[in-house]
Amino acid sequence: MAVFKYYNIQLLPLDSGVTTEIGENGYKKFFEGLKEKLSHAKSKKEIELVSSALANNYYLCPFSIDVKESFAFGKFIKYQKVEKVSNLYTGADEFEGGKGSVSKSYEFLFAYDYANHTLAIQKKAGLPSANPLMECLDKIFSPVCDKLFPEHTLKIKELTSAESLERVYEADNYKKVEIDLTFSNSADYEDEIIADLEKDLKGNNVHTLSHTEKPEKGSYMTGLTKISKAFLPLATRFGNATVRYIKDGVSDTYRMLDYPVELPVRKSKNETSEGFLYRVAMSTRQANEKTNIGEKIKRMIRG
Q1: 257 in helix, strand or coil?
Q2: Which of 85, 115, 169, 225 is most deeply buried (CB count within 10 A of its CB)?
Q3: Residue 200, domain extent
């Protein structure tokens, strides 16, 4: 059974008062552009044109892309380039690599739903951790975005399980709260307080927001402010947060990146690859639901 992680990947207007959102057709156009660039790179055997560097001479790139009416799918590869192989005892070169020569490679299936601009990527051995992966995706996607949508900016965030926030709201005291946010294209929030904040960010053309709360050195905060209580649920889908807190006299740290949304998707025996990856794309909707807070946290926000 394959397991997937989820990333909100959206293009935001640089000036929301002048430029409209790109919509589902825009995200389809983006993947068509990425596919064209990939085809050109593969035809020239220059995959580095769509690759982003990782540690230890590894690289990440898309390797196949299919673009459909409501979703795109394919696979990414992570590969390690090899230029030459030398003999340990003689020092002589025994092999010199050429275009496409790699010593190791890993494949990761992906699917992207245009409607909720969310990417599902297969979690398996070799997948980069959240921050390096988001940096790679940004470097791979940005040139295509800049070419096709120069009046928009690319934002990538990992989806976090909202349930993980309970431990933060239930803490006794707090040492430091750090929250980073990006406004969304089309989020629907049941909680009125959170919905109003998200609307306010978007309406005032705020792309990113950083919020920090901390007491004087050696002391602690006795509770979360209303601002932090409302910002934290937004960060599960469109940001990141770190909270240092005290519970029952014990200090601990909550890191949002430690609680990604992960969902299993089983491929049926006679199911086609396209049919399976369509269901993976549809799983992004369930993944986004996982970022919504429950009634317990709603009561804590209002408390």
Answers
A1: helix
A2: 169
A3: 162-259
End-to-end CA distance of the chain: 41
Separation of alpha carbons 285 and 71, rounded Å: 12
Residue finishing a domain among 158, 190, 215: 158
Would you state the structure tokens that stand for residue 230, as one six-digit string? 């409302």
- Do residues 139 and 105 share a domain? yes
* Rounded Cα distance, 68 and 63, in Å: 17
Please check whether residues 140 and 167 belong to one and the same domain.
Answer: no
- Sheet harboring 250-255: ordered strands across? 208-213, 173-182, 239-247, 250-255
Which of residues 126, 158, 190 is at a domain's end? 158
In a domain, 32, yes or no: yes
In a domain, 222, yes or no: yes
Torsion sign across C-alpha atoms 34, 39, 40, 45 = positive
Separation in Å, CA 230 to CA 170, 179, 223? 15, 11, 13
pLDDT tens string 235-282: 888 889 999 999 999 999 999 999 999 999 999 989 999 999 999 999
Q: Are 127 and 133 in contact (CB under 8 A)?
A: yes
Q: What is the dihedral of CA 170, 171, 173, 176, to 10 degrees?
A: -110
Give yes or no: residues 37 and 138 share one domain: yes
In a domain, 272, yes or no: no
Alpha helices in the chain (DSSP H): 23-43, 130-148, 166-169, 192-203, 226-238, 273-289, 295-302
